[in-house]
Batch of 2 targets.
Target 1
Amino acid sequence: MIIDCHGHYTTSPRPHEGWRQQQIEAHAAGKPAPPRPTMTDDEIRETIEGGQLKVQRERGTDLTIFSPRAAGMGHHLGDATTSEAWAAACNELICRVCSLFPKNFVGVAMLPQSAGASPRNCLAEIDRCVNQYGFVGVNLNPDPSGGHWRDPPLSDRYWYPVYEKMVEHAIPAMVHVSASCNPTHHTTGSHYLNGDTAGFNQLMNSSVFKDFPTIKFIIPHGGGGVPYHWGRYRGLAQDAKLGLLSELMLNNVFFDTCVYHLPGQELLAKVIPVDNILFASEMIGAVRGVDPETGHHYDDTKRYIDQLPLSAADKGKIFEGNARRVYARLSAVIAKQSATAV
Amino acid sequence: MIIDCHGHYTTSPRPHEGWRQQQIEAHAAGKPAPPRPTMTDDEIRETIEGGQLKVQRERGTDLTIFSPRAAGMGHHLGDATTSEAWAAACNELICRVCSLFPKNFVGVAMLPQSAGASPRNCLAEIDRCVNQYGFVGVNLNPDPSGGHWRDPPLSDRYWYPVYEKMVEHAIPAMVHVSASCNPTHHTTGSHYLNGDTAGFNQLMNSSVFKDFPTIKFIIPHGGGGVPYHWGRYRGLAQDAKLGLLSELMLNNVFFDTCVYHLPGQELLAKVIPVDNILFASEMIGAVRGVDPETGHHYDDTKRYIDQLPLSAADKGKIFEGNARRVYARLSAVIAKQSATAV
C-alpha cells in the first residue's frame, strides 16, 4: 500500500472558497457571515474524481492523508471567531471527501488558529475531528500571523494545550504554515520552506520532547532546509550541549518527501534514517508543471523514491510502514473506512 | 590559491564589542556615545594570529574575504545614526586587519543599514570602503528588522540605490542577515538559512537582473534551502512563466559552500553548475565543534570539496577562479596588497 501523507484539498468546490471570501468581507464590514453554501455529494465527487483520485491512479498511489488547503487556512485573516467557523467548514468538507472515497482518503484537520489567539481555541475542534470524523492528525501552523512571526515559538508553553491534546488522542501534527501576507515572503517559494526550518529549530531548542516523550511531528517539504544542513544542525546541537541530534530529535520528528527532484531525495535518504521518512507529494499543490528534464511532473515524488538505492523493506517503510506508525490511529481508520466502502 | 569568500571578524578585540554595547546603551538613554576605544596593532594581530590566520594555516587555505561579524551588525538596534557609526568602526577595523595581513585578508563591508531607514544611507560608506579601503564587496542584510521582516523585499526599488552603487563599483553583495531579535528565529539555527532562502526567492520574483544585468549576489550558507529544493524552484519559475531557472538566476546568483557535511556538499555540486559555486567556510563562526563522524571540524569545508568527484579544473573554479570573477576587483586588490606585504 502506498500512502501519501501530505495532500490538501486544493480543488475544493468554488462555493466553499467563495463563502470564505464573503465571510472575511462580512467580518471587515462588522456584519455576520452569510449562511454556508450547500454543496451536493456530486459536486464534491467531481472535484476529487478529476483531481486527486485521477492523480492517485495515474501515479499508482493508494491513499492520501488529506487536509484542507494549507494556503487557504489564512489564520492571519479575520479573528478567532471567523477562524473557528472556517476551520469547521473546511474540516467538515474533508470528512465528506473521506466518506465519499473511504478507501482513498483519510482526514487530517486544520486548526482554528488565529494570530495572537490562544491555541486552547483549537481543542474542541481537535476532539470533534478525531472523535466524530475519524481524523488521524492535525496541521499546526507555527506562524498564524502569516509571515510576520508574531506568535511564540513552538518551544513555548503557549502551545502545550495542543500538545497535550495530540498525546491524548495519539495524533501527530504536521508543522505547516499558511499563506504569507508579508511581501518579503512568497507563500510557496519561501514561507513554506522557512516555516519548516524554523519549526524544526524551535522544537530542537525546546523541552517539548522531554515533556511529551511520545509526541510526533512531521516536518513537510522534505524538512525545509534541515536535511541539506544536517551537519550544521548536528554541530549546533553539539555546541549547545544538547546531545546527539539524532537522539534529541528522531524519536519525535519525521520528514516527508515533498522534494521535487531526484538529487534532493537522494540527500534526504542518505542523511535521515529511513524510519524517519514518510512518503508524500503534496500533489496538485505548489508545483504543478512537468519537469522538462524528466518528462514527468515535478511533484510525482514516487518516481524519485522508486529510483533510490534502498531495499524493498526500506521503501515499504517510506511508502507505508512509517505512516502507520507515526499516525497511530491510521491502521484502525483504514480498516474502518474500508469496511464502509462499497 | 584557495580563497575562502565568507569569513567574519568573530574574534574582534573586546573593546570594540564593548564600545558597541556602550553606544547602544547611550542611545537608549538619549546620551551621546562615548569616544571609540583605541586598539593597538598588536591587539588586532593577537586576535587574528590565534584565530583566523591559525585556522587558514591548519586547513591549507590562503585568503579570506573578510567582513565584520554578521550577527554583530545588529541593524535592528539603535537608529540610522548609531548604525552609521558602528559600520564605520567595524569596517575600519577590517581595513586594519587587511593592512596588517595583506596576503591573507581582503575586505568586505558591512553596511550602515537600519530598520526602516533608506538604503541610500549606505552609499557614502560603500564609496569609502571601496575607494579608501580597497574592499571588494558588501554584505547586504535583507531584513534589517532582525527576524521581523519589516522592510521591503530585495525585489523592491527601495534597494535600487545600493544596486546602482554595486554596479558602479563592480562589487557583489552577499545576502546576509544579522542577529534575530524575534524569539521565533534562532540566529544561526534558522534566521540565517531562512534569510538566504527568502533573499534568493525575492530576487527570483523580481526585475533586478533585467534592470542590472551585470549585478552579482552570493547566497551564503550553501544557498539556504535553495539547492536542496532546486526542483521546486525550477518548477515554481516554470509555473510562473519566468522561464528556465538557470537562465533567470545563474548569471547573477552564486552559492557559497558553507554546508557542514559531505552529503550536502555533494548535493550542491550536483545541482548547481560549478561556475556558480564559491568556496567558503565561515570559519570560527556558527558551528565551532569537531564532527565525531569525521574527526574534523564541521566547518572545515575544504575537506568536503576535496572529496567531491570533480576535475582539478572544476575544483580550481570553486576554490579560486569563481571568486576572482564574481569579486571583479579581487585580483587587482590581491596584487596591490601583496605588493605591500613584507
Target 2
Amino acid sequence: MWVQRQITLQERPRGFHLVTSEIERELPELGELRVGVAHVFMQHTSASLTLNENASPDVRRDFAAWFDRAVPDGADYYAHTLEGPDDMPAHIKSSLTGASLLLPVREGRLALGTWQGIYLCEHRDRGGSRRVLVTVWGE
Amino acid sequence: MWVQRQITLQERPRGFHLVTSEIERELPELGELRVGVAHVFMQHTSASLTLNENASPDVRRDFAAWFDRAVPDGADYYAHTLEGPDDMPAHIKSSLTGASLLLPVREGRLALGTWQGIYLCEHRDRGGSRRVLVTVWGE
Amino acid sequence: MWVQRQITLQERPRGFHLVTSEIERELPELGELRVGVAHVFMQHTSASLTLNENASPDVRRDFAAWFDRAVPDGADYYAHTLEGPDDMPAHIKSSLTGASLLLPVREGRLALGTWQGIYLCEHRDRGGSRRVLVTVWGE
C-alpha cells in the first residue's frame, strides 16, 4: 500500500513547534498498516523537521536559543544577504536538522518513543505556511 | 518482505560508540534480501545515531570533543535545566545527528562504504540502555 | 519495482556543489513510477549530502564559510590528525548534514520543492571522486 499526500502546515512564528498530531490526523491510512514507514518531507529550504522531546516547551525554546547562537543572523561573512539577515542562517539551520523524517509504523500507529514528537523548525521570521509531502507505505 | 524488530543496545558511557555488528547480528533476515533497505530508528531524544569512520577510536573521541564544545553542558541560556546540565545539550546534539539511519541492503548485506560504521551517540552521562526499532524491507 | 545502482560523482573541490541533474540522469527508471522514493547514500565518511537552495551560488559559498568556522581545520583538541588538518573536521561535518537523503517520487519525477537541490558536500581538500549508492522503489 502506498499513500502520498501533500500537507500544508499553518504559518507559525520563528522557532520550534510540535506538529505530531497535525500530521497524524492527515494520515488516517496509518490505521490499515501492520508494519511500514512514513516519510515526512519538507519542500522548503528555510524550514526543516526534527524529532525531539514532546513535553517541555522549554526544550523548544532552548533549541531556538542554541541555533540562533550557533548560526547567527546577519553574520559578516555571509554573501547571500539580499533576502534578509534571517535567510542565510535559515538555510544552514535547515541542513543541520535535515528536511525529512522517516518514521516507523507499527500496528497502525507511528512507532515513536514515549518522549518523541515531530518538530517543525521554522527558521524564518515570516516563513508563511509550509508544504510537506508525506509518503506512507507498508503492509 | 518486511521485518520489524526492537533491539536493545546495552548501556554505554557518554560518547560515540561503534554498534554495527551489534545491530547486524540481530538481523539474520538481511541474508534473504537481494535488494532493500534497513531503517534503524532510535526511540529516544537524548541519544542518536550517525554513520562515520569505523577504524580509529580517536575519531570517536574527537566527535565527543567537538560536540561538547559546540553544545556546552549547563549553558546559561538553557531554560530546561531540571534534568541536569547534560540533558538539554543531549537533546540538541540528538537533533544535529538525527534519530535514524536508512541503510541500503545489497546481496544480503548492509551496503556500507569500506570505512562506514554505525555510531550510537550517547549524549547523557547515564543514559541507560537504548531502544532501537529496526524495520527492514526489500525483495 | 526496485532499482539499485552505484553512481560515481566526479571529483570536485572542497565545498558545496549542486548535483541534482547529475543524479537524475542516472535514474531513467524514475519515469516509470507513479509514487515511490529514492534513497541516495554516500559511501564515504568525509563527504556528505544535503538538500538546500538550488539557485544562488552565494548560498553554497556561505555554507562553506559557516561550516569551516563551526568545525575548524586543525583544532588543537583533535587527536585524529594523521590524515591531515582537513580530515577530522570532514568527518564531523559529514555527520552534521548526514550521509544520505530520502526523496519522494511522484508521477515519474523527484518531488522536490521549487528551490530544493541536492548538494554534494565535499569536506576534503582532495576528496577524489565519490561513490553514491542509489536505491529506488515504488509502484
